[in-house]
Amino acid sequence: MNDKRLNTKLEFAKTVVRDAGDYLKAHLADDLEISEKTHFDDLVTNLDGEVQDAIIAKIQETFPDDHILAEENDVRHDINDGNVWVLDPIDGTTNFIVQKDNFAVMLAYYESGVGKLGIILDVMNDNLYWGDGKTSYRNSTELQLTAKPLAQSLIGVSAYMYRTNAGGLFDLSHQCLGVRAIGSAGIEYTNILDGKIWGYFSNLSPWDYAAGAVLIAPFGYTTLQLDGSPLDFQGRQMVMSIPENQRTVLSETKSI
Questions:
Q1: How far apart (Å, rounded) are the C-alpha atoms in residues 18 and 102?
Q2: What pTM was computed for the model?
Q3: Rounded Cα–Cα distance for residues 160 and 131 (Å)
Q4: Are strands 141-142 and 136-138 parallel, antiparallel or unpaired?
Q5: What gap in Å lies between CA 32 and CA 4, rounded to an integer?
Q6: Which of 6, 12, 136, 233 could be stapled to 206 by a disulfide with Cβ–Cβ 3.0 to 4.6 Å?
Q7: Is pLDDT of 241 > 80?
């Protein structure tokens, strides 16, 4: 990366995300304070708030002119307005609570709506995925990815969207080898980067897709709403992340 300013922000982001992962692992066996947000399966813990507060404090101290869009406590800022960090302190909170696995810390950096940096930490596997929209890495290894045809691949899905055939997703599943539902957007995006799934379909908020969209972009992947319209970074939307050069396969389903 030739931009020294962006490189400084990248190294900062990698450090704070790794620190957050270490903190979560250190407190994995704690008695958690668990609350429901919108539904009994939409959970938040005290550690979500603690990790978010810690990262926000570091951003504000280091880059006081930047803004933040984050999951917890209604921290919102327009993605198109200036320099914006997009944060998900624990992506896959239910997995964190129940499985102690399959959860991630995600941080992205956007300038005037354009993704500049993406960082996803697969906490329990200690794999840090990071990139600038042009190149992506897993730890120190530069990633290489060429999407296989859908018929030779698996897809990552939201279980609810799959079983209700939202947007024709169940129909689409008949064109691939099968579906996988993990419950963490961050882990799904790392599975795309590792070549384990062809694409990902889910109902997501901006902090769920901001980092992943940056990381998969160098490999010809596009991240859009399920109807093909651009993301608006406002609220929850049905989203797909797929190989751009294979979008035509979606026309073979009844809805997508």
A1: 16
A2: 0.94
A3: 30
A4: antiparallel
A5: 40
A6: 233
A7: yes
Instruction: Identify the helix (H) or strand (E) that includes residue 118.
Output: strand 114-122
Element containing residue 231 per DSSP (H, E): none
Mean per-residue pLDDT, 4-14: 95
Alpha-carbon distance 93 to 100, whole Å?
9
Entry field: residues in the chain: 256
Residues 99, 232: Cα–Cα separation, whole Å: 32
DSSP state of 76: -
Helices (H), 63-147: 93-98
Structure tokens at 51: 């990790």
Rounded Cα gap, residues 186 and 252, in angstroms? 28
Residue 200: Cβ within 10 Å count: 27
Q: Which two tokens stand for residue 187?
A: 């882990």
Closest CA to 157 of 129, 132, 136, 178: 178
DSSP 3-state assignment of 70?
A: strand
Contacts for 256 with CB less than 8 Å, ≥ 6 apart: 167, 168, 169, 171, 172, 226, 240, 250
* Backbone torsions φ then ψ of 78, nearest 5 degrees: -60, 125
